[in-house]
Amino acid sequence: MTVGNSMENDNIEDLEEEDGEDHEHEHEELDEEEEKGLRDEVGMFSFKALQKAREMVKEGVKLIEVADSIENYARENGFDIAFPLNLSVGKEAAHYTPTLSDEKIFLSSDVVKVDFGVGKKGVLGDCATTVDLSGNYQKLLEATENALNAAISTVRAGTMVKDIGKVISKTISDMGLLPIRNLGGHGVKVHDLHSEPFIPNFDNGDTTVLEEGDVIAIEPFASHNGRGFVGNSDIVEIYSIRYPVQTRSSGSRAMLNKIIEMGWTEPFALRWFGDAIGSKFELYAAVRELERAGAVEGHPMLIELGDGIVSQHEAEVEVEKGGCKVLTK
Fold it and tell me: Given a cut of 80, is residue 23 above it in pLDDT?
């Protein structure tokens, strides 16, 4: 359904007038105790939703059925979506989420990365696993799972991030596989899923030291018969809002107004606009206009540059004095 033009312009102008030239989103301030409680709640539910998604990944099932089901499951339980469910297959390393009316189904040969997280009051979860429907890549899956566990065992206050990368790289390399060197984990802050520090998948020489209370996502990726590097593809289905702008077309105004109306500050999927914009053509035209205007930023699907099959495992942890607490469990 397309919203009337006059309402669209009013909504955008009102938001712009609220903060003048400052387009930063205003967020509720959380005290330390509330944030800590939310991290536990969000982490546990993110993992629960991930396991539910993993169980749905079966030959013949439509990707969009899994994505819609898991995202609705999170909303129905009172959570926001930290980012759209990622279902990246084979050489796709990350950032594939189903398109509007996607007809793609899982095949018996697929190796599927399942990456998801929920949020509440800006506190965000992030976790991932890999499903091998072919049964041919168990060693690849074991490599990233073992690397994740080894990395978690090294985390404590005082650990340098390069040492986490060193453990990840060694674990994967010792199994005859390649760590993906230009992907890695990240810090997680309120309303900031990808904050500092970057957590490498190899020893990159970064001597940044983890401190007690830091929250990080550790995210090993490994490649089978590839190059160990990823690049951007032409497929972009996930975007983030940057700031509101005036636009010409009714489609781009409808898209921007839905973002504002829903209060989306985290990444969103284009298919979420199916009720506001009538067709795929209009949908892509609208988001291209917003991207050109600087209102949104796209997150392209990432592919292994040597066409290698990719595995991923990820957990979010809180750094403690003598170790770390796994939040997504």
Answer: no
Overall domain count for the chain:
2
Decide if 80 is catalytic: no
Of 214, 314, 316, 318, catalytic: 314
pLDDT for res 47: 98
Q: Residues 118, 249: one domain?
A: no
Least Cα distance to 214 among 145, 160, 146 occurs for 160
pLDDT of residue 27: 65
Band (7; pLDDT cuts 50, 70, 90) = very low
CATH number at residue 289: 1.10.10.10
- 92, 126, 282, 289: the catalytic one is 126
Q: Which residue has the tokens 């009714």?
A: 250
Concerning whether 314 is annotated as a catalytic residue, the answer is yes
- State whether 66 and 158 are in the same domain: yes
pLDDT tens digits, 137-160 = 999 999 999 999 999 999 999 999
194 is catalytic: yes
User: Is there a single domain that holds both residue 165 and residue 246?
Assistant: no
Active site residue 132: no
Residue 216 lies in a domain: yes
Based on the fold, state whether residues 103 and 12 are members of the same structural domain.
Answer: no
State the residue range of the domain holding 220. Answer: 32-230+306-326
Who contacts 185 (Cβ-Cβ below 8 Å, separation ≥6)? 164, 198, 199, 216, 217, 218, 219, 314
| Active-site annotation holds for 126 | yes
What number of residues does the chain have? 329
**Residue 47 Cα distances to 276, 295, 309, 314, angstroms:** 31, 32, 24, 10
In this structure, are 43 and 148 located in the same domain?
yes
Catalytic residue among 194, 206, 291, 297: 194
Candidates 293, 259, 292, 263; CA nearest to 276 is 259
Catalytic residue check, 186 = yes
Q: Which of 8, 110, 145, 186 is flagged as catalytic?
A: 186
Q: Which of 8, 115, 145, 282 is catalytic?
A: 115
